[in-house]
Amino acid sequence: MRTGLTFSCSAVQASHAILCKFIQNALHFTIHLSPQKPDHIKIYNNFKTQRNVLHTLHSVKNRNLQVLFIHMSLQGKKIILAVTGSIAAYKTPHFVRLLIKAGAEVKVLITDAATHFVSPLSLATVSKHPVLANVSDGATWNNHVELGLWADAMIVAPCSANTLAKLANGICDNLVCAVYLSARCPVFIAPAMDEDMWLHPSTQVNMNKVRSYRNHIIPVAHGELASGLVGEGRMAEPEDMVKHLSRFFSEENKPLKGLKALVTAGPTYERIDPVRFIGNFSSGKMGIAIAEALADKGAQVTLVLGPSREHTYHSLVNTVHVESAHEMYEASTAVFKEADIAVLAAAVADYKPQEQATEKIKKKEGELTLTLTKTQDILASLGKIKQPGQTLIGFALETNNELEHATKKLNEKNADMIVLNSLRDTGAGFGHDTNKITLVRSSSSPIALPLQSKAEAAIAIVDQILELRHAKKTV
User: Fold this and answer.
1) Among residues 62, 134, 253, 280, which one is catalytic?
2) 75-252: CATH superfamily
3) Is 46 annotated in the active site?
């Protein structure tokens, strides 16, 4: 079935170069430039190749095409805009108008401090909805849970230093915070403050916290500030925030849609008796962050999780709970047969007791000797059965000769990449919310990344997975 898509583009803008780019990136499309109407281009497309056109529209440096791209990706989306106390709030009516022009429906929340910078009446007028400031307005209760369920996205813009601290630490003393804590949709945060406030260590700690909660940060801009200084801290311009949202909702941002992924995370416990076990200090945070990052790109993820207090509520992540290395091996092997991507981030015990006591071992005089045997090597096992279209990623936690050991593991176990951790790096490894990793690939030099949140490290890993898969397709 073919469908038509028409948009306006001047004869000058519809240059030969742009049309060639369309043809190269969307070979399944028929492009018509009418001699009678040179300001119209009509594209006939097959539904399956719509993503190619979206990619083309987003990549070309053409304002008319970018406007079309934004309209397609935000059409019908329900957006909550939370306005907080910053001078940048004066830009929010324009932001709302841009969202509505792109086809979105917008509901606005506002803090008391923000009303000093922008009129609720102005925001109500452009949004076509009442502006909500309190959990209750007289006899009316503004259901924060219902609002959180209604939205496809929530954006806090501008987000003041005060509100950022509240979001980072779960403080709920106004409607904005209540809806944020209730929201099941993606949350975008656009900070706005003076440079000294932005660079203060406490603000950066709060930024790292909200990042670790899987929120999306719209970077601050550099320029003139309310103080008269020039530096970082300006809220992103409304047009840039609209583009940020449109990229998120576009099909282009879901390159793993339709693919299946396996992720292992957490420790394994090998029972000695009913009350004791051999284990490690892994929390599972890194593996869960990777599972969520893959899901954010559209993959259907099976997370095989060892004993951990951590969890995920991502709609595209199905969690399978296991305890021992053998249980993780069995679950991973079963899932891997249908998986396109596997990331083995779990800290699997290398050894287990040869025998497991059925009763608690009593303390006695003298020494207790345990005979240990090797557990299954999950990465090596999956590497042996890996098919050409599968991508297999392993982890290595080392204390010495890190790159040498990681490279050896990469080659011996038929992995496509090894994510290297070193316990010698402060802030990396078990239990932390941050990590410092090096990505080891056979096809290129190691990529050493700085200390960053595990959520950011997970995004970097997924980006490399996309590169690996693209390279396989082009070989």
Assistant:
1) 280
2) Flavin prenyltransferase-like (3.40.50.1950)
3) no
